[in-house]
Amino acid sequence: MTYRHFAQLQTYGDETIDTRAEVGLLSRNVVFRGDEETSKRDEYGATIFLHSEGDDSLTARFSYIELTDVGQAFKLGRYAIHFHMIGAVYNSYVEGVSIHQSNNRAITMHGVHHLRVLNNVIYKTKGHNIFIEDAVETNNYCKDNLIISVTRSWSILNTDQTPAGFWITHPNNHLIGNHIGGSDRYGIWYDLKEEA
Questions:
Q1: Range of the domain at 181
Q2: Is residue 10 assigned to a domain?
Q3: How big is the CA angle at 170 (ends 138 and 67), to the nearest 5 degrees?
Q4: Is 133 exposed, middle or buried (0-12, 13-18, 19+ CB in 10 A)?
């Protein structure tokens, strides 16, 4: 065994406590990455930016790939994966993806509805990690994601100085079975707006 992990159900009287730790696999066979030598130093990594003319005019399916040395600090909109002003994306998803060492967020949904974000592992990412941006985004489905080591960023929005694993601006989005640990500030931050 290469890595050992503590995992045990402990019973105290009539109560059983689950003390098994979350474990996330970061490596994948297909790797999308910024330059290994300069991305960390310059905080300027690779990005995936998706934009189109409107509802279902774009389909993006990311599954079981690794993104590392990604995201560009000091630049709004330059996140590891950024779905931008598309509308409904019924056929799109981000599933089983590993995102680590991102200089600027992991997954952003801006003006997007019905995106599925499932079973992803996010580690050591600056700013809000899964970011639902403007309070118009609805019916996005985020399930069974593992987010570890959310670190503050001094380069994006003021709220990224107190980051969250999930930053949610509209309550009509679905968060189910996600796990977040080791954030500089919050696990889930609902920053609901009176008007969208």
A1: 24-190
A2: no
A3: 70
A4: buried
Residue 6 and residue 12: Cα distance in Å, rounded? 18
Domain count, the chain: 1
The DSSP result for the chain, as a single string, is --S-----EEEETTEEEE-PPP------SSEEE--TTTHHHHTB-B-EEEE-SSTTS---EEES-EEEEE-BTT-TT--SEEEEEEEE-TT-EEES-EEEEESS-SEEEEEEES-EEES-EEEEEES-SEEE-SS-----EEES-EEEEEE--SSS-GGGGS-EEEEES-S-SEEES-EEE--SSEEEEE---S--
Q: Is residue 77 part of a domain?
A: yes
What residue ranges of the chain have pLDDT lower than 50?
Answer: none
How far from 167 is each of 39, 92, 175, 186, CA to CA, in Å? 25, 20, 11, 9
pLDDT at 196: 55
Query: Could you tell me if residue 51 is inside a domain?
Result: yes
Q: What global pTM score does this model have? A: 0.91
Q: What is the pLDDT of residues 49-94, one digit of tens each?
A: 999 998 989 999 999 999 999 999 989 999 999 999 999 999 999 9
